[in-house]
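Lab notebook, page 48
Experiment: co-folding of the full assembly
Goal: obtain a model of how the components sit together before planning crosslinking
Operator: M.T.
Materials (sequences as entered):
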Amino acid sequence: MRAAVAQTMRPDEAVYRFNGLVTVGVPLLAIFIRAFLPIRFHFFSWFELPLLVTIYFAMARRNQVAGMMTGAIIGLVQDSMTQLPIGIYGMANTIVGYGASSLSAKIDTENPGSRALITFCFYLLHQFIYITVARGMARLDVQWQWHRVVLIGIVNAVVAVFLFASLDRFRQKV
Amino acid sequence: MEHIVSRFRNFTILGVVLFAQVIGLAVQVYRPSANGGSARLVRVWTSAAITPLERAVIGAQQGLKYGWDTYFYLRGVRVENEGLKLQLDQLRIQQARLREDAAQARRLQALLAFKEQFVAQTIAAQVIGTGGSEHSRIIYIDKGADEGLRTDMAVVTPEGIVGKIIRADKTTSQVLMVNDEQGGVGALLEKSRLQGIVRGTPGGSLVLHNIMNDEKVEKGEIVLASGGDRVFPKGMPIGRVKDIRNGPDVFFEIEVAPAADLNRLEEVLVVTKLVDKSPDVNMAGPVRAADMLAERLPSVPPSPPTGPDGKPLNATPGANGATHAAPPKPATTGASAAGTATNPKPSAASTKAPKPAPKPSNSNSIAAQQSGSTAAGQGTSAAPPKPAIKPATPATEVPQAGAQTGMKPANPQPRPEQTPVTQPPPGALR
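Observation: model returned without errors.
Model output:
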């Protein structure tokens, strides 16, 4: 609702929706690519496509509940594909979805530069939450490696610019 | 209170969603035995939703690749074929030598009532997916419980160990790779025979633990599965020692480079059956009464070698001793002994034009004739520098016989090269 008000005040912050096929298909495709392509191309394991899709849908819908629920579902599906306890990715993606939708009401998210910066920051946040939960609750020995996290964050920020631009074709203005 | 909740509605929902996940996580972490509950159901659903797509893509890709490789892309196949034939020849030679080594090992193990693990059955499987997380080293394979796979079965490649099955669904299985931090393998260093445990790290590398830092470990040393975990077959390569560091306590921290390329797995083998058995005593070959007697009475001189006509080949006492002359290492196999007696390093090239080896004139070991004949064909025919040595070939069979009876020779003699031997019949040389 707040986003709708924002839409009337600032035309560049329009609220978008997606049809059912895109809403379900794109996250599933992102998870599939994330799980499948690293077999043949190991560098694909750097691309956190499910996270990027979470951020994109949250920013486009500008609805905190929708954003967090999208993040929670995508994260839980990711969790269920690993042997680790279910909920670690779920929590991280929930918070990222909530944060992205909250942020989108305040800043311009159509600019490629701001999209890259937002993605980079949310990647760091995502990793921080994941590692905190994994170490604190699941007692996993996951370590924070600054250089690796920053490097992968930059890579994902670049990927996000192109991915978001291609996903823009599927959105429908409310 | 109601006002606060409605005012911060979204934030409240966020708290509720997070709280639910925290509770769910806590249940899983602190009650791991309740693994078959709803969480497991979620995993099964996810697997059922994702893996058919992966299987379809893999199937289509394989079909296209097969069609292209088999019917269209045949450039260089002839050259490759010739190279492979050459390689096959070399491998056959190597196989013959190894067969001899294995035969002797079986004989010795039979004598020692040694139990051994054999990989009795494997199933080939295709890797169809990963865990989709950089913090978890999981792969999915396209075979499951329908094909007889169960949890804790070892997954390997010809290069080395990959991991073990941690969940077998109907048509797919989840494999925990050895480089995951929750994975581990009982390990053994090949040269020093030190035992430890190889574990994965969060970064995806392998570390060998529990080796005291006053032991001698070399870089490049091969790390094998010890078989102590009852999952991985003993002797399967895990990797090589890559780096050795001092750990925080009295142990080394040894980094191991995995033998199998864990980042590029396409096909794997699941070990579905491991058998513990003693080597078949019959494989040791028949044992002559004279050998048994010699074992019990080492001072009894062995019978002299006889020629085809039944007459002794060597009339001299020295020659007689030469038939049972033991090289310094009696454990050497007939094959290798034969090889070293004539040519210390039988090359592949030299074996390409094999000359007929002289028949072992020592008729006292059938096993030596059966297995040693191959060795002689490979080793002794390898361009002997001095034909006069060839008749000493029977001496190389003696370690075989010695090994067969599990005893050291009673009267060690000089090396066969130094042993004066009489010239054999001319026909035997050619």
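Interpretation: DSSP finds seven helices and two strands in chain A.
Next step: discuss with group before ordering constructs.
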